Amino acid sequence: MRITDDRYHRDQLRLDLAMRMIRHEARTATIQSWTGLTADRVRKLHRQYVCDAGAMARRHRGKPPRQSAFFLRNADLRRQAAALGGLYALLGLFRADTARVGPAGPSPAWAELFCEAYETYLQLGLGVGITFEHGAYLLEALQRGTDLRPGCCGACSAFTIIDTQRRMPPHCPLCEDEWGGSSNPAALATPLATGRVRIPADNRHDSPEPQYLRRSLRRSGQ
To answer: 10-residue block means of pLDDT along the chain (222 residues)?
Structure first.
């Protein structure tokens, strides 16, 4: 009886998670990967949610987002991406193994933690420019660290997202806004006397040798 109960509980968790992701308009392939449900089961759940409950949830088709530049498009998106990335750090969603992103196989617990981070981001009221699928790719991009990586603001020590192609000291979008987009390192290094609440950075995410510096060193050595 215990085995049957445990199996029922696991199946129910997966169904609840799938419905949660459907409400955030996640793609069928993403729901499959994170819950272990079949594509047919996901489609039936979507029809049940939309038709029976009368809810509004679009089914996105095509390839998921794969452009890191999306998060750097404007100041508003940079602020939202930094807030969401900080929530990933606070909830421990970054993996030590950068070669593997996302849950190791069907892991409802990991996916629920991601949903919690994304829903908290929506509740912050910073905007809704980052969809669920964009949020999933943001975590993947930060995990890989090729174009974007987690880091620490050089002015206020808050969590920020570092563009590895940018040849400037890293600063969070709030500090850049307060200094009027200044690129002066001395100005940005001045402590800010504000009462803003920021997500503190974890220095373990801040590599002492950014990608642009590694490239410069390799060129100078040639």
So the answer is: 68 90 90 91 84 65 85 92 94 70 64 95 90 94 92 87 81 76 47 46 45 36 44
- Closest residue by Cα to residue 17 from 30, 5, 3, 4: 30
Q: Which two tokens stand for residue 219?
A: 């060129």
Strands (E) located in 104-211: 148-152, 159-163
The verdict on 112 and 202 lying in the same domain is yes
Rounded to an integer, what distance in angstroms lies between the CA atom of residue 85 and that of residue 94?
10
Q: How many domains does the chain have?
A: 2
Question: In one letter, which amino acid is 150?
Answer: P
Task: Show the tokens assigned to 180.
Answer: 């009027």
Q: Domain range spanning residue 24? A: 2-52
State the number of CA atoms in the 13 A half-sphere of 160 facing the CB: 21
Instruction: Kindly report the pTM of this predicted structure.
Output: 0.75
User: Which H helix or E strand runs over 159?
Assistant: strand 159-163
Which tokens in the block code for residue 157?
A: 């020590």
| CA dist., res. 144 & res. 219, Å (int) | 23
Residues 32 and 134 in one domain: no
